[in-house]
What we know:
By secondary structure, this protein is mainly α. Helix content is 48%, strand content 0%.
Amino acid sequence: xxxxxxxxxxxxxxxKLGLLEPAVRTRYEVADVKAIRHALxxxxxxxxxxxxxxxxxxxxxxxxx
Length: 65
């Protein structure tokens, strides 16, 4: 199992460095949370509470370079 993990990590590093193309690329669409909130007549605080987070939690999300 260790050898499989080591090989996988080596592959990830090579992909990050641009030396290897990923076998699969997964893309996710980002939901329009603001539109959903408005459709539900819910505040940011309401949605944050349901998701178990805070309204300002988005400020700490790292940005992709």
